[in-house]
Every structure is written in C-alpha cells, then in structure tokens.
Amino acid sequence: xxxxxxxTIVIGEAIDIHKKLGPGLLEKVYVxxxxxxxxxxxxxVVKEKPIPVVFEEVKMDCGxxxxxxxxxxxxxxxxxxxxxxxxxxxxxxxxxxxxxxxxGLLINFNVVLLKNGIKRVVNNL
Length: 125
Prior knowledge:
alpha+beta, 3 helices, two-stranded antiparallel sheet, 28% strand, five-stranded mixed sheet
C-alpha cells in the first residue's frame, strides 16, 4: 500500500472516531482508538515508537516518540490543542526525516470538524 492509500484509511478512521467521541478528550484517547481501528483493519501499526536524533555520527535517544507509525511508511502525530502551530508541523517533519518516512499526518482532534484539524506533512527525502 502507498503512503497516500494509508493516509486515506487513517483519515477515514480518524473522522469516524471524532464523529463518535467529539472534541475535548485527551490526546491519548484518540491515539488509542486510532491504533485499535488500524490494527483491526490488519495494518502494521507501532505506537509510541522512539525516534532517535542523529547528528553527524552521534545517535541520541532523547525521548522523542511518534504517536503512530503505520506500515513503516506513514507517521501520525495526534494533538488536542486550540490550534496547530508551526512548531507542530516542524516536529512532525523532523520525525519524518529521522524515521526516513515520506508522509505524515498531523491531526488535531480538538476541533469541531476534524477535516479542519488535519495537515499533511511531506518529507522531500
């Protein structure tokens, strides 16, 4: 499956979860529900995967963790904030670079209509 096909599945599941739960819950709740739904669909999903920082020859395990990595191709970062900020996009892009993935979804579940809280983040490897 391509990154875009995976993203379509993730977005569909996230929208359905958001319709049923609504905004206002903790980020962890949405991540757990999305993880459950994606695994139920037979996808390989890793939750809270450590993302090491690499600088020159130094690899540092600094405690950065991607919320979900699907099929080792797509990173999903979930947020429950008033509004996404540039730093959220920058962090997601950094995760993509260090995980060697092309596509990420930054999803803010703290919105009335979820499609307004989804940002695609592309790493031009």
